[in-house]
Design brief:
single chain; 372 residues; alpha/beta; TIM Barrel; four-stranded antiparallel sheet; 18% strand; magnesium
Amino acid sequence: MARITSANAFMVDLEPKVVRTDAIQSFNSQETIFVVLRDVDGAKGMGYSYTIGDGGPAILSLLKETLLPRLMEQDADRIEAVWRDLLFCSHATAVGPIMSLALAAIDTALWDMRGHKTGLPLHILAGGAKSSVPMYTTEGGWLHLSPDALVEDAVASKEAGFLGSKVKIGKPTVAQDCERLEAVRKVLGDDYEIMTDANQSMTSGEAKRRLPMLERLNIAWFEEPLPADDIAGHARLQSQSRVPVAVGESMYSPGQFADYIAQDACEIVQADVARIGGITPWLKVAHMAEAHNIAICPHFLMELHVSLVCAVPNAPWLEYIPQLEDIAAPMARDGGNALAPMTPGLGIEWDYDKLAALTVTGSAFDIKEAHQ
């Protein structure tokens, strides 16, 4: 039994390198919560989770007061059993973002430990479907950017090998959204994919009015047009649209994805490994989507998601938003394709000196098994 004997956690606050805005919010910072686990044999695993500027201390509190003490003396090799035990030991806080984000930090640490103990990289441990994946970039498509700026970034991205760009929509008028998308399509041509993201900002009527424009411009998908809990509205919209509806970054359990799929409310799922509670539930969603002939195109966290999208056969894209450059080595790339890490575990090369220097004062703590 690979008994877990200790854990420590801490938080690093990372500022974005560019201004990031969408129709409902700005990305102010990435509160990055780390968990480091060790077992009785001396094996180590480090996982992480994140918020976009709010809630990090609440996640740390849940880890410190409830989840990590419960984890002590459990078997690190039984990841599924550990995940379910931690979920149900504090079930009154689930389903929800704080619980899922805390679980994800632990679950990714356990998968990292398994990789180091077996000598296998995550994409092989989790399935090994492929070794690379095309990327689309979101970093140059934020809502505040002008049409000229969108085009400039998309041209540079195409020259770098990217096959697509995401453009945020949700301007006050359809004409404004149309102007931005048409500018990119005119210059980049029909072979370059354009994804759109409304970030849950629209009513059903506003989303419906944009369908002819999105279809005419051959948009790859219409992401989060409506609030995430409006499954019926998404189902109606998908039934009227030739453009796939994409949802998932604001869902926190496999059951929520099951409801969307059952009601034909989407054609692309975008599970975020942190927001759904870790690698363990992420893989369940990916396989559920595959069984329904649906693609999974995850949200954010490209340094971790690259291994997961390479693990499964139904993940055609990786979203490019660089955010860990201050604390980790750059993700391996071949032009516009991301390469699955071949080193054991998560495959992220952390800079431990920078992590220590950037740790938020007062955020770090240690947990040990009772008899130590």
